TrEMBL record:
It is found in: Cytoplasm. One of the essential components for the initiation of protein synthesis. Protects formylmethionyl-tRNA from spontaneous hydrolysis and promotes its binding to the 30S ribosomal subunits. Also involved in the hydrolysis of GTP during the formation of the 70S ribosomal complex. Belongs to the TRAFAC class translation factor GTPase superfamily. Classic translation factor GTPase family. IF-2 subfamily. It comes from Wandonia haliotis. Keywords: Cytoplasm, GTP-binding, Initiation factor, Nucleotide-binding, Protein biosynthesis. Residues 14-184 form the Tr-type G domain. Its main location: cytoplasm. This is Translation initiation factor IF-2. The gene is infB. GTP binds at residues 23-30, 70-74, 124-127.
């Protein structure tokens, strides 16, 4: 069986918030995520090559850390939710000020609301002469979403992702929201977390990008992830830096799992490799049987 380690209150330490950016296509998600990535004060020091591992952490000038899921669109968010995984603490809903609250914006809002994830609104492209942020506020209010500056409860920030305007202000609002959530995790136990994405690399074998949610993941750990198992052979972060261990809210890319688990699969650390493999095999069998059954009907 998968060992569950209960936490005592005194074991819980503050952890970084995990944030997802959602919004309509072309409203600026990628531009914003790129901007924020460049705000990282330790990225330069690391000197490594930036790699896409499905998420990244930024350390701000005030020393605070925020982790962003950077899988574009809200597909990852939805896929993870479909598997019962809830990794996001805060959603940034981005809306272009020269456009409208669009169907995908509404979908993103509905997803965040259904998941009970607090939202912060980023009204983007305010550098454009045709930008009309008040129109966006108005359209949001028609959905019963009242922003703070209109007396409501939702934090909202005008930004220009392209020109890098008011990004710090937006991140401050994320930190404020995170403070209210009082996010904590126990770093001193076996790691648990969620798979963000995985793939087969010709040279390196299966590469699994995941987010540690609690505990500390270490090289050599016996890991069970969805229908697959293995041992953590190597681990690196989004700067390509090799890691020996990774604590709560740290995104990592690892080698050593014997297959490609799905986005949203949970991972656990086991004591016994044979048991990990046996659970993985049973899950794989069940998965195939269910697959066959759904094909028949
Ligand atoms: P995504 O589809 O939501 O990821 O949107 P992108 O980040 O790819 O942006 C779509 C387009 O809008 C690109 O051509 C960006 O250069 C442009 N864009 C994004 N943010 C801004 C902004 O703040 N101002 C202006 N003028 N253009 C922007």
């Amino acid at each position: 069986a998968i060992p569950v380690q209960e936490d005592k209150d005194e074991d819980l330490l503050p952890r970084a918030p995990i944030v997802t950016v959602m919004g309509h296509v072309d409203h600026g998600k990628t531009s914003l995520l790129d901007r924020i990535r460049n705000a990282d004060v330790i990225a330069g020091e690391a000197g490594g090559i930036t790699q896409h591992i499905g998420a990244y952490s930024v350390t701000l000038e005030n020393g605070k850390r925020i982790t962003f899921l950077d899988t574009p669109g809200h597909e990852a968010f939805t896929a993870m939710r479909a598997r019962g995984a809830q990794v996001t603490d805060i959603a940034i809903i981005i809306v272009a000020a020269d456009d409208d609250v669009m169907p995908q914006t509404k979908e993103a809002i509905a997803h965040a609301q259904a998941a009970g994830v607090p939202m912060i609104f980023a009204i983007n492209k305010v550098d454009k002469p045709t930008a009309n942020p008040d129109k966006i506020r108005e359209q949001l209010s028609q959905m019963n979403i009242l922003v703070e500056e209109w007396g409501g409860k939702y934090q909202c920030q005008e930004i220009s992702a392209k020109q890098g305007l008011y990004i710090d202000e937006l991140l401050e609002k994320v930190l404020l929201e995170a403070e209210l959530l009082d996010l904590k995790a126990n770093p001193n136990k076996n790691a648990v977390g969620t798979v963000i994405e995985s793939s087969l690399d010709k040279g390196r074998g299966y590469v699994t990008n995941m987010l540690v949610e609690a505990g500390t993941l270490k090289i050599g750990d016996i890991i069970l992830a969805g229908r697959y198992a293995g041992r953590v052979r190597a681990m690196h972060n989004e700067h390509g830096k090799n890691l020996k261990e990774a604590g709560p809210a740290v995104p990592v890319s690892i080698l050593g799992i014997n297959g490609a688990p799905s986005a949203g699969d949970k991972f656990y650390i086991m004591d016994d490799e044979r048991e990990a493999r046996s659970i993985a095999t049973k899950r794989e069998q069940l998965y195939r049987e269910q697959g066959l059954r759904t094909q028949k009907h």
